[in-house]
Amino acid sequence: MSAASLLSAAGLPPGLWDLTMSRICTRHPSIRMGRLGFTHSARNSAQAALARAPSAPFSLPPAKTGEAKGTFGRRTARRPGRPGPLTPRSGAPVAGSIAEIERRVKELKEAADGEVLAMENNFVFTEADLLTMYEDLLAHPQETPAPEVPSVVEQQAHLEEDVAILRWIEQHLLRLNAVGVPLDTPFIAKLRSQPVPVPDTPIIDETLDVHRRVLQLANARLDRLDVVQRLQPSSSTSAPSPVPIILFSLKDYEALTRTCVRKGDWDAAESVLHLMKRSGLPIPEESLTTVLQRYTEAADVHGAEQCLTNFLTGPPTEPQRHLHIKCHLRATPRRRVPETALAVLHSYESQGHPAPMKTYTSTIAALYSTNLSIARAQAWDLFSHMRYVAHPTPDVVLYTAMIRACASPVSPARGAEPERALDLWTEMTVEQRLTPTVDSYNAVILACAKSGRRSYVNEGFRIAKEMLDAHRDAYGRSAYLPNRRTLCALLEGAKRIGDLARARWILADMVRSDAGEKEGVNEEIMMHVFHTYTSYVPPFTRNLAVLVSKQESKDTSSASRTHVVNVPDPSKGVPPPIDRSARFTRVPPQTSNEVMEEVQALFQRMLEDTGKDLGTSTRDGDMFSGAKKFQHVEFTVRLANSYLSVYYQHSSLEVSQALFWKVFDDVGVAPDARSYLEALERCSRSKRGRERTIGLQFAERLWSEWQALEDARRSAGQPLDARMVERAHVAFMRVLVLNGQLQRALDHIKAFVGRYPPSHLIDRSPKANFRSTRTVLVGARPLVRLTSPNEVPDDGVPPLLMFSDLEILHHRLVAASMKSGIGYIKYISKAYEWALRGRRDAAMRARPAPNAHSISTI
C-alpha cells in the first residue's frame, strides 16, 4: 500500500502527500520525484483518493518560457537562484491547487487544536466526581450475607401454620378411620371372616400433642391398608410391586417433621420417616438430614448409622456424609486420635463419594485439638492426601487452618514454621487469588511471631501494617479491622524478642479505645504483656551506676547529677511498696526497678477494676484514668504465673518468695504444676551467699507441694507431663547441689529412678494402622504424606534423666571424691540413654497392628 493510500485510509486530505513531496523537491533540487519513484505511484494514489473523495482538480502550473525538456522527456534543471513555483514566499500563498492544499492543512490543524481543547475541558472533574469514581474502584468486596434468621414472630407464625395443617390431617384421618366406613358392609364382613385380624380403630389420647395423635392415626390407617393389600388376590405368581399409599401430601409430611423438631421430640421425627417409608414415598433429603443432625449433636454414632441404613436408598449426599463423619469426631474423646472418623472418611473416598471440603477441615481441626504429635502429623498428611484424591484447591478456611497449624508444629522442639506459613500464604493470595480474611491474617502473623526470630517477627508486623493500609476504601476505612486475636499475635512476637516498646504501645492503644468485653483488654492480653516485661532487658546496667547517698544527691546540681538507683531493702522479705505516682511515659523503663514499678501498677489497677482490691485507688492522674479498662480481666493461674515471672527475672528471690504465697490468695486461685515448676527453677538459679539459703528453704516447701500434686495426678490416672516432671526433679536436685547437700541430691536421684526406672522406656504402644508407610494406591489412610516417621516425636516417653541433667552433680561428686556416687551417675545416665535408643529402634521397625475398629460403610 502506498503512502498516499495510508494517508487516505487515516482520514487525512489526499493532497497532503503531494504538498509534502513538492516542498521536499523544491528545497532540495538534487532530489527529483522521478528518481525517488514517487511520480507515478503518488500520482495514482492521489487520483484514487480523489476518486473516493471529490475535491478541486489538481494540476501543476504550466512551464515558463525558457524551460526545455530533456532527451527522455524529463524536465531540465532550473537555473540556480531562481525560485520555483513551489518555493515558499513571505507573502500570501500562490493561487491555485497549492493554495487549496495549504488551506486544508490549516483547517486540519485548527480542528485538531479544537478537539484537544475540548478534551482538556472535558477531563476537568470536580471533587464529587472523583469521590464517586474512587468509591467504585476502591469499594470493599461484599461479604456473603449470612442466612437470615426468622424473627420470633415469624417462627411463631410458621409454628401456628404447621399446627393448623396437622389439625386438618387429624380430622381427615379420623373421617377415614371411622366416619366414612359402615360396620356392616359385605367387604368388612369378608375381612372379619378371614384369619387375618383387622385392626380396630385406635383410641386416641387427647392429652397428647397433635403430632403424636397424627402419628397414631396414620399408623393405624396403614395397618388396615396392609391387611387389605395382603388379602387381595394376585393375578401373577411374581410378587406385586408396592404401590405408594398416599395418606397426605409431601408438604404435610414436612410440616409434621418440622413440628416434631420444634417440640424437641426426636423419636417422633424419626417415626415420621418410618411412616413415609411404609407409605412407599421417597424420603425428602431435608427431613433425613434434620434427624441425622440430631444424632450428630448427641454424638450417637449407632443411631446415626442406623438412620442412614434404614432410610437411605442411594448414596448419601454431601451434607449427610459430613454429618456422619462429624458424629464420629464428636464421639471421640479429646485426647484420642479419631480413628473411626478417619476410617469412614477414607471409606467414602474408596466408594467414589469423597466428603466435602468442610469435612476435611473439621477432621484436621479435630486432629490438632488433641495436642498429640502423631495427630498433628496425620493432619498434615490428610491435607496433602485431600489435594491428591478429593479437592485439589483448598478454600480460604482450610488454608487459614493450615497456616495456623504452622504456629504449632508437629515437633515442639522444632518451633514454629514461618517459612511454610508464608509459602501457603503466597499460594493462597497470589497463585490461587483467594481473598484472605481477618483470621487468615491473624494466622500468618501468629506463625511468624511464634518463630521467635526477629526477622520473622518484623515480617509479622509488616503483614499487620499491610492488612490495615493496603485495603482502604475511598474514605480511608480498612477492609480488615484488627481484633483481639491480631493483637495477641503481635504481642506473641513482641514478648519473644523482648520488644517492650511495641507491647506498651499496643496496650496503650487498647486502653484508649472504647472496646467492650469482646475486644477489650482481657486475661490473655495481660499475660502476653507480663511475659514481655519478663523477656525485656533494661538498657541500664546497675553495676555501672554510681551509688550516692541522698544527702550527696541533694547537694549536686541538676546539670551534673548522677543517676541514683533506689534499691529495695532485701532484708525485709516483702515486695517494695507500689509507687502510686508512677507514670507510663513514652520511654520504656530503663532499669529493673522501673520495670517492677510499672508491673506493680498494672497488677494493682487490675485488682481495683475487678473489685478484688478496695484500697486506695491508683486511677487518679495516670494514663488509665477514666472508665474501668481492666474490668473484663479474669484472674487465672496462668495470669498469676506470668505476673510472678517478672519478679523471677527482675527482682530478688526473697521478694519473689514472699509474693508467691500472697498473689494466689489475692486473686483467689490455686497454684498448678507450672507454678511450682517455675518457682523451683528460679531457686535453682540462686546466687552465691544468702540467696542460696533462702532458695533452699523456699524449694523444700515447694517440693512438698509438688510431690502431693504429682502423687494425686498419678492416682487419678492423669499423670503430669513427663517433661515437666523431669524439669521439676532436676531443679530440686540443683538446689540441693548448690547448697552442698550432695548425698541428699544423690538420694533424690535414686528415688526418681525407683519411681521411673529405665525399663519403663521399653514398653510402647503399637503402631497405628493409619500411620502405615507401605506404598499403596488405595487404602484407608493417606496416600500422600508430608511427614516421615522420624519427624514424629513420641509423646509417650516416660520421665528420664540424661547426663546433661546430672552434669552439675557429677562435677561436685568428682570434686568431693565420692567414687560410688560418680559410678552410679554414669550407670544411670547410660541406662536411660540405651533404653531410649532401644525404644527408637523398636519404633522404626514396628509394623501397624490390625485395625480393631469395624466401620460400617454406607
Automatic annotation (TrEMBL):
InterPro entries: PPR/CCM1_RNA-binding (IPR051222), PPR_rpt (IPR002885), TPR-like_helical_dom_sf (IPR011990)
Entry keywords, A to Z: Repeat
PPR repeats: 249-283
Keyword Membrane: no
Keyword Lipid metabolism: no
Gene3D superfamilies found in the cross-reference section: Tetratricopeptide repeat domain (1.25.40.10)
UniProt feature, compositional bias: Low complexity: 54-63
Region (Disordered), start-end ranges: 54-94, 555-584
PANTHER family: PENTATRICOPEPTIDE REPEAT-CONTAINING PROTEIN (PTHR47942:SF63), TETRATRICOPEPTIDE REPEAT (TPR)-LIKE SUPERFAMILY PROTEIN-RELATED (PTHR47942)
UniProt-recorded name of the protein: Uncharacterized protein
Source organism: Mycena maculata
Source lineage: Eukaryota, Fungi, Dikarya, Basidiomycota, Agaricomycotina
